[in-house]
Design a protein that fits this description.
Blueprint lengths: L4 E3 L6 H10 L12 H14 L3 E6 L4 E6 L2 H4 L17 E7 L7 H9 L4 E7 L15 E9 L7 E3 L5 H5 L5 H11 L14 E9 L5 H17 L2 E10 L11 H14 L3 E4 L5 H11 L3 E3 H12 L3 H29 L8 H40 L4 E6 L5 H9 L16 E8 L6 E8 L9 H6 L1 H8 L3 E7 L5 H14 L6 H7 L4 H4 L7 E4 L6 H10 L4 E2 L8 H13 L9 H5 L6
Parallel strand pairs: 1-3, 4-5, 8-9, 8-10, 10-11, 12-14, 12-15, 15-16, 16-17
Antiparallel strand pairs: 2-3, 2-4, 5-6, 6-7, 13-14
The chain binds guanosine-5'-triphosphate and magnesium ion.
Family: Belongs to the TRAFAC class OBG-HflX-like GTPase superfamily. HflX GTPase family.
Subcellular location: Cytoplasm
Function: GTPase that associates with the 50S ribosomal subunit and may have a role during protein synthesis or ribosome biogenesis.
Length: about 600
Amino acid sequence: METNIYGNIQGLKSSQIKKLQQLYEQRQPSYSLTTPEFASTLAAISAEIHQPVCCYINRRGQLIRVGVGTPIQTQIPPQELPRHSTERLSGIRCIATQFKSEPPDEAALITMVRQRLDALVVLTLVGGEGGRRGKQTNGDIKEAFLAHIVPNPEKPWEISPPLSLDDLTEQDDDLVDEWEREISSSASGMPFQDTVSDSDKVLLVGLKTDDISQQRFEDGLQELARLVETVGGSVLETVQQKRSRPHPQTVVGEGKVEEISLLAYKLGANLIVFDRDITPSQARNLENEIGIRVVDRTEVILDIFAQRAQSQAGKLQVELAQMEYMLPRLRGQGREMSRLGGGIGTRGPGETKLETERRTIQQRISQLQQEVNQLQAHRARIRQQRQQQEIPAIALVGYTNAGKSTLLNVLTNAEVYTADQLFATLDPTTRKLVITDPETKERRTIVLTDTVGFIHELPPPLVDAFRATLEEVTEATALLHVVDLSHPAWESHIASVEEVLAEMPGVETRNLSQRVAGVPPVVASGVASLHIAFNKVDQVDSETLALAQQKYPEAVFISATQRLGLDTLRQRLLQLIDEPIASRDAKIEPALHPGFPP
Ligand SMILES: Nc1nc2c(ncn2[C@@H]2O[C@H](COP(=O)(O)OP(=O)(O)OP(=O)(O)O)[C@@H](O)[C@H]2O)c(=O)[nH]1
Ligand SMILES: [Mg+2]
C-alpha cells in the first residue's frame, strides 16, 4: 500500500503525517465522486495543518496519491499517468481543499486538463477567507466546486456553481462516463494533447487459447511488443495465461486479473495491452478492476498508423479507420444499456445522447468514406492512364518491415522512407523501372509500386479505410511478395500476407476457401512461390536458406541493402509481366497462382 505523502510536508508533525497516511486506507465508493465522511476527514486534516490537501482517486475508488499543497503542487507527473489518448480521461479524480471561497483558479484547472483528470473537486473551508492560510478555519466545509474537462480548445473546462456537500455527493455516478464520451465524440478530442511519443510503461497480456498454436502465440506476443515500442511505449513485462477461450467479462480469469493488477502497481506500469481484440465492456471491467488503462492490439496498430500518417490521404484513411473502430464500440454500449433497461420509459438521456453521438460519428464516417472514394477514383484515373500507355504494373506486397521500400529505392533510385520499424510506409509510391531484356536486348518499362505493409490479422477497419491504397495492389499486373527471410516467423508472415490478400474486396478467395477446407495456406500457395522474393539473405543462415529453397523452389533470393540477387530479380520481374493474365476480374489469382487450375 502506498504511504508516501507528496508535496510540501516540511514542518508537519509525525502525528499529522500519520493522519495523512491514514487517508490511503479509506476506500472510496467507485460510484460517486466522494462521500461526506471522506470530505469531512480531508477538511479536518487540512484545517489542522493549515494547508490545502489533494487526494487523487482512481475509478476503483482507491487513493493513489495524497499530497500537501494545491493541485499544481501535488500533480501527478506525466509519465505516471495512464497513456495519452485523444479520447480517454486518465481515470483519476482529484479532491482538493482550498481556503478561499472561490472556484478553482486557472492554475488548478490547467493542471486538471494536463493530467486529463476525470474531475476536480474543490472543497472550500469555512472561515478560511481572507485569513492567513486557514488560520481561523475549523474544518467545516462551506461549499464545493466540481470542475471537469470539456472538448473546447479555447476554454477546456467547465465549473459547477457552488454546491453543498450533499449536492456534490449525490452527483450521478455515470457523470464521468458522459464527460468522457463528450470528449471522444468531439472533433477536437482531448485538449492539450501531446503527441504519443512519451514513454509508456506497458504490461503485455497474452492469452493462449486452444485455437492458436504455441508458436503463433509466442510470435504474436513478440510482435505486439514491437508494435508497442513503435508507438513509443516500453514493455516492462509480459503476463500469460492459457484458457480454452477468453473469459467473457475479463478476457483472462479472475486470479489473473488480480495478478496483473498487483504486478502493474509493483512495476509502475501505466498501460495494459492485450494481445487480442477485447470488447468495450471487457476493457471497462478490466479498467475498473486494475485501475489502469487497458487497450487491445488493434488500438496499438491504429495508433501507429495515426503517428505515421503524413500525407493528406494517409491522414484521411487513418481517421476513417479510427472512426470505424469506434462506432461499433459505441453501439455495443448502447445495446448493453437497452438490455439493462429495455422497453418504454427506460430509455434515459444516456441512450438518447448515445444515439446522437452515433449519428455524429456516422455522419463523419460517410463524409470520410466519400473522400476516400474520391481518392480511389483519382488513383484509378492515374492507373488508367498508365494502362493506356500499356505500362505493366508490379506491386510490392509483404509483411511490414520486409524491406519493400528499401527494394523500391535500390531498384528505382526512389527516396521512400525506410526504417527498422513497423509500418514505416503508409502511402503508395510508384516509380518507373527500365529493364533490358537479356535475350532481345529490348528496353522494357514497368512501374513498381510500394505500399503499406501487412500484418497478421490486419484490423478490418484499416483494410477498409486503406482500400484506395490497397487497390494499387489488387489492380497490379503482378505482385511481388517480399519476405524477410531473416525473421524467425517468416513462414507465418507468408501465410498472413496471403490471408490479407485473400480477404481483400474484389479478390477471389480461392486460397481462403481452401484454407477453410483444412488446407493450410502455405501449402495452398505452393505455386505462388514464383512471386516470392526472399529478402535480407545477408542475415540468413544456410539451413534457413536451404529450407526456403526447398519449399519455394521458384523464389528469388535477394538482399536489398547489399544489392544481392537484383539482376535475377529484374529478369524475374520481366517474366512476371509476360505471364498471361487469365481475366481482368481475378487479377490477383493469376498473379499469385500462375499454375493454379481454374
Ligand atoms: N540486413 C538487411 N536489412 C534490410 C534489407 N532490406 C531492408 N532491410 C532493413 O529492413 C528494415 C525495413 O525496411 P523497409 O524497406 O522500411 O521495410 P518495408 O517493407 O517497406 O516496411 P513497412 O513500410 O513498414 O511495411 C530497414 O531497417 C532496412 O534497412 C536487407 O536486404 N538486409
Ligand atoms: Mg515501407
